[in-house]
Design a protein that fits this description.
alpha+beta, paralog of FGE (formylglycine-generating enzyme), four-stranded antiparallel sheet, 18 helices
């Protein structure tokens, strides 16, 4: 090699070294680059509320401490840090984080985490992370696109040469520019065309096609794009008509029901609350409601109570707002009107309120069951059984639309408050198990099946069958750790569902043998076995073939919350397994 080439080689090596040093000097900004990744993908399952694997990632101290699977964060050593090694696993690996269904991290994101750890994992002192809701493509975005966009932008019918049925085509865009630019909603036509005014000619979908989208949908699109527009490669979209979607436009339906409820308020204070019996409009079917005054009570059972479960304490004083509660469990007479629209129409009178009918018709209704759901135990004045919590929630929405009263499932706290009826004993009638047969149907007196509602003695507040006959759905996600449950209860009033199982169930049932299983404080969690014999794939979101012991009753809170709260109460969003 001549002198010139040697000098050139040295210069190249020097330049490379200098460039490498400059690149190494570019520090990863924790607040701008790492914090958003962790809050969006990690803290939901590894934060103060949930600590999967006993690991928390909401503070530096917790991350350094690690969890059951070892070190989460080892500064300067990404190869020893689960925070990095778990995010670079193959997509189908059982331990990849976040799981594939939640959306894998991009290479840019994993590289950011790696570089940050290599640089010493700087984390501002005292900075605790929060949970940022991650938009799920299949649950949140796919329905928006399939019901509003894909009909005009799909294979064989791509207006403006834009297709939104497959990922690569959607990201490529069409004549008007990029449809989806991950991280930049301002340059994404999918968002900008939905966010213009309803009179703008660029509005998508146009008014003639049902536009504009509800505000909630537009905000979901914006958040999804800002979060990186994760679109699983294996999901291809198909065009769907709005009438095919159960419940149609749910935000609009809920808003209409809310207006109806506010227009029919006849009691605005606790003093005005009275017991009442209502006809379901247009039918001869009735149901009865009992007023429950607000107050304080001690929730849970004392340590010495016979049969006490670990999930019943420690006890805590809880404040309850006033509400009405169904005097009886919901019967087949009521439930089949909701379950079978044709049956409802056949029993309705011609003078039925048209507005109420249209509103209730917009509520999602169950599919036809493939077996007879009373299983031969009786229907007239017998409790309805074997419905999912989703189905019970939708019944409450439907009944609200039919009557103009706000109905929902009781929270666990409300249910126990009503069951106790001012008592502090194991049962609402005291601690004497020998009296249980006077108040409840259970294995020793039920003849191995449920019985007509209201045939036993009521509790002190006039509620029947609280201790037996059928167990009853509550509104909450079941949280086995009582301390964690109480934290959510005291913060939000109930525990919103985040997974299909388990949900909370209260009260004893006709098949229970031990009296202790019918106490006021007994808690129960739903599980997949309650659908074991369901032959459908996927499993039904409406029926529990193996929960013939389970029904529900409704409550009507005195205070009527905003429409967005009603939508959350009536729609879990986790009904699909």
């Amino acid at each position: 090699m001549n002198k010139r080439n040697v000098l050139k080689a040295v210069a190249v090596m020097t330049l490379a070294a200098v460039t490498g040093s400059l690149q190494a000097a570019e520090r990863v900004d924790f607040n701008k680059e790492v914090k958003p990744i962790l809050e969006l993908n990690c803290t939901k399952c590894h934060g103060p509320e949930q600590q999967k694997g006993k690991l928390r990632l909401d503070s530096k101290e917790s991350a350094l401490k690690g969890g059951e699977n070892g070190n989460a964060l080892v500064p300067n050593k990404p190869q020893d840090s689960k925070m990095y090694t778990s995010v670079i696993l193959p997509a189908d690996h059982d331990d990849v984080m976040p799981p594939k269904k939640e959306g894998l991290l991009s290479k840019a994101q994993t590289d950011t985490i790696k570089n940050w750890i290599e640089q010493g994992a700087e984390w501002p002192q005292g900075l605790n992370l929060t949970v940022v809701r991650k938009v799920n493509f299949a649950k949140d975005i796919q329905p928006i696109l399939e019901f509003n966009c894909v009909a005009c932008h799909r294979e064989g019918h791509a207006k403006g040469l834009l297709r939104l049925d497959v990922k690569e085509k959607a990201f490529a865009g069409g004549d008007s520019g990029p449809a989806i630019v991950p991280g930049n909603k301002a340059k994404s036509l999918v968002y900008t065309s939905t966010a213009v005014s309803e009179n703008d000619e660029k509005l998508m979908p146009p008014k003639s096609k049902g536009g504009p989208l509800p505000k909630e949908n537009i905000e979901l699109l914006a958040s999804w794009i800002d979060q990186g527009a994760n679109w699983p490669d294996d999901i291809k979209l198909t065009a769907k008509k709005k009438e095919e979607m159960p419940g149609g436009n749910e935000p609009l339906t809920v808003t209409e029901i809310h207006k109806l409820i506010l227009s029919k308020l006849e009691a605005r204070s606790e003093a005005e609350m009275k017991a009442y019996t209502n006809n379901i409009p247009g039918t001869h079917v009735t149901y009865a409601m009992v007023p429950i005054k607000g107050g304080d009570y001690v929730m849970g059972s004392p340590a010495g109570e016979k049969g006490r479960g670990k999930d019943e304490g420690p006890q805590e004083k809880i404040k309850i707002a006033p509400f009405w509660m169904g005097q009886y469990e919901v019967t087949w007479n009521e439930y089949e009107l909701f379950m079978f629209p044709d049956f409802e129409k056949a029993t309705s009178s011609p003078d039925q309120n048209t507005y109420t009918s249209k509103t209730s018709d917009a509520v999602s209704r169950p599919t036809k069951p493939y077996v007879e759901m009373s299983f031969g135990m009786g229907k007239d004045k017998f409790p309805a059984i074997s419905m999912t919590q989703h189905a019970a929630n939708k019944f409450c929405e439907w009944l609200s639309a039919k009557t103009g009263h706000y109905y929902r499932l009781p929270t666990e706290a409300e249910w126990e408050y009503a069951c106790r009826a001012g008592t502090t004993t194991a049962y609402s009638f005291g601690d004497d198990e020998s009296q249980l047969g006077d108040y409840a149907w259970y294995a020793k007196n039920s003849d191995f099946k449920y019985q007509m509602v209201g045939k036993k003695k009521p509790n002190p507040w006039g509620l029947y069958d609280m201790h037996g006959n059928v167990a009853e759905w509550c509104l909450d996600q079941y949280v086995p750790n009582y301390d964690d449950y109480l934290k959510s209860l005291l913060k939000d009033g109930w525990v919103r569902s985040s997974t299909p199982y388990p949900h909370s169930v209260r009260g004893g049932s006709w098949d229970k043998e031990e009296p202790s299983e019918l106490r006021s404080a007994v808690r129960r969690a739903s599980n997949k076995d309650w659908k074991q014999q369901d032959p459908q794939l996927p499993k039904s979101i409406w029926y529990l073939t193996d929960a013939q012991f389970l029904g529900f009753r409704v409550v009507r809170p005195l205070a009527v919350p905003a429409p967005e709260v009603l939508e959350k109460v009536w729609n879990n969003g986790v009904e699909h397994e």
